[in-house]
Automatic annotation (TrEMBL):
The keyword Metal-binding applies. CDD domains: AHL_lactonase_MBL-fold. InterPro entries: MBL_superfamily_lactonases (IPR051013), Metallo-B-lactamas (IPR001279), RibonucZ/Hydroxyglut_hydro (IPR036866). The lineage of its organism: Bacteria, Bacillati, Actinomycetota, Actinomycetes, Pseudonocardiales. Its cofactor is Zn(2+). It comes from Pseudonocardia oroxyli. PANTHER family: METALLO-HYDROLASE RV2300C-RELATED, QUORUM-QUENCHING LACTONASE YTNP-RELATED-RELATED. This is Glyoxylase, beta-lactamase superfamily II. Residues 34-231 form the Metallo-beta-lactamase domain. Belongs to the metallo-beta-lactamase superfamily. GO terms for molecular function: hydrolase activity; metal ion binding.
Length: 250
């Protein structure tokens, strides 16, 4: 059984049109976004879900509250003691601080690794802004890389599930807690509204994959309250605060 926290390390002001697919009359309305990493702790191990981004490598529009590893440390976990780093996908804002968890094995879907490093990767120019070559070199270093195919139990009470949609190898993390099964959806749903309104975001690899991911998220979580999106500022209001930049999900 795990205790699960969301750590908001940064925020950005945005517009609805940047976050939802398709034009409508609300396109120009303000729509803030938040940046998170997640920490799952049991009696025997500490697991971080996604590595986040560091200030010196971030776009100017992103305002930082702390660095991801500082956020983890603020909850009493030394980043050097984190034994597993699950990477939901390999976009730059989820891989940037991986080196701050030096002992952690990195869990990545093989489909995600192959998409970003395969023979046609350099030709997928529309997505090059989303990847960092230096991050990929760090995260995919073979000495600490655990490639998985589909669903895999990483440890008792913690598993990953390939869904695709947002990226070729997008994966969810499912965690057993005192409240039941929590699903850390990361960017499979950026905002709760994606799921509630059945409306994707504009950055996607496969439209059928997006909708299949929505269905799988609902199947894996014990309740809608235990589904945690990847960039929704409302996460900080839905769960009890345990620090200036962190909430306890379960």
């Amino acid at each position: 059984m795990y205790t699960v926290h969301a750590i908001r390390y940064a925020t950005r002001e945005g517009l609805r049109g940047q976050h939802f697919l398709g034009y409508d009359d609300t396109w120009a309305e303000p729509h803030p976004t938040a940046y998170y990493v997640w920490l799952a702790v049991s009696d025997t191990r500490a697991v971080v879900l996604d590595a986040g981004l560091e200030p010196d490598r971030a776009p100017a529009a992103i305002a930082f509250d702390c660095t991801p590893h500082e956020g983890v440390a603020s909850l009493g976990v030394d980043p050097a003691d984190v034994d597993t780093l699950v990477l939901s996908h390999l976009h730059y804002d989820h891989t940037g601080a991986a080196a701050r968890f030096p002992a952690a094995r990195r869990v990545v879907q093989r489909a995600e690794r192959d998409y970003w490093t395969g023979p046609v990767a350099k030709r997928i120019t529309r997505e090059h802004w989303l990847r960092s070559e230096s991050d990929l070199a760090t995260v995919l270093a073979p000495d600490r890389l655990d490639l998985v195919d589909g669903e895999a139990e990483i440890a008792p009470g913690l598993s990953v599930h390939l869904v695709g949609g947002h990226t070729a190898g997008m994966q969810l993390t499912r965690v057993w807690t005192a409240r039941g099964w929590v699903v850390l959806a990361s960017d499979a749903i950026h905002f709760t509204e994606n799921l509630e309104q059945d409306r994707p975001g504009p950055i996607l690899h496969s439209m059928p994959g997006i909708y299949a991911a929505y269905d799988r998220i609902r199947e894996l979580a014990d309740s809608a309250e235990l589904i945690v999106p990847g960039h929704d500022p409302q996460v900080m209001d839905r769960f009890p605060r345990v620090g200036p930049h962190a909430v306890r999900i379960a």
